[in-house]
Amino acid sequence: MTAFAKLPSIPTMLAGYREGTLTPTDVAVRCIAAVDTYESSVHAWECFDGQKLMAQAQQATDRLRAADEPRPLEGLPVGVKDIFNTADFPTQMGSSLWQGFTPGNDARVLYDMKRLGAIVPGKTVTAEFAVHSLGKTLNPHAADRTPGTSSSGSAVAVATGMVPVALGTQTAGSIIRPASFCGVWGCKPSFGLVPRTGILKTTDSLDSVGFFVNHAADLLPVFDAIRVHGKNFPLSDAALTDSARQAAPGRRPWRVAVVKPHVWAHVPVYANMTFDTWCAKLAANPRFELVDASLPARMTDAHAVHETIYNKALAYYFKEEFKRAELISPVMNRLISAGQMVTVSEYETALDEQVGLSRLMDKFFTGDNNASTGDAGFDVMLTLSTAAEAPLRAIEEAPDSALMWTLTHLPAVSAPVFSSPEGLPYGLQLVARRYSDPLLFCFIAELEQMELLTTTN
Asked: What residues pair up with 456 in beta bridges, in sequence order?
């Protein structure tokens, strides 16, 4: 696994601002140096403007001289997947059909980040329309391996130290997979917690906004910066502000589900053994109670349900692009054609099944009517992020569980924990109940404190 210089964590950088040992200009210089060093070999950026970055960083530095306290994202360069509207850059969505398109505004989530001090140096490469066709981005650890398609540019920009934070989206596994294959932290928050205004829409009930970072300590600060807040969002606000729900368990141990879902058949022996060894190490600590848990039986239908919803939505939202099929990829053509064959009745049935599976997974975590958990429920769930290391670019990625948690609207994080015999990264996936994102970050912080998330093979 290639080692890249990392920027400090967000809390460390903000502390440096306060102490006068670091400025946003210093951060920008390091980011530009990383771009100059690595971009020609990994192609993470659709467009990058170093002069604009330096100008924004100088403004942030000047502001800090006159301010008592830095804002939560003060002077932090953020890579933006090229399906988010940006006022200062084109939004081309990985397609020649939209080349040069300038929306003239920022996506809501990006507006919120900039209001908290973030600065935007450019747009990261996305797969065509954020679907499956590989773009120009290369895996920084092995150029012949896939970087993970849709949000790959953002993952690679973070992995190589070009930015401390990058935005991505996930409709199946497009945050978790690139994070796993590129060796960074990837977070897909609970569905609906991050506004989607001003972002390419592919599937109404699946599209989720998330991010990539290099440090576990950055998960909660970025999450708090991009999520919705307040009483106008009553369901999520009630859950997120419920201290009893979000706090670490007190005297009792963390109750942890270890899950090997139906797609585990694609996991090679080395990944299965490494996962088991890591879980055994965790179980040896009295702070954690691990349970080999079975998912609700109907979750074996998740991939088929997802496919029906996904293909039908693509056929609807990209019907105009499909009129110029020669200008879109064979993959996109195939998915749209498949979606056109899905009837309205089949689509509605799949949406109903999605709701039913989401309710089953909520009961899985709460313990309601779930004999496999002894009705005790779980705080978090552990599985692999991907089947194993990144496959060769010409080989289709093996099925994994990431889309199952997208389908059921759960928060998921890929942690850069594992390394294959080839020295390539792959991730540990941590999942929690919908809207229990802070609890998930609390669990991760405790693992970090105990040094249980260091890379292993």
From this structure: 418
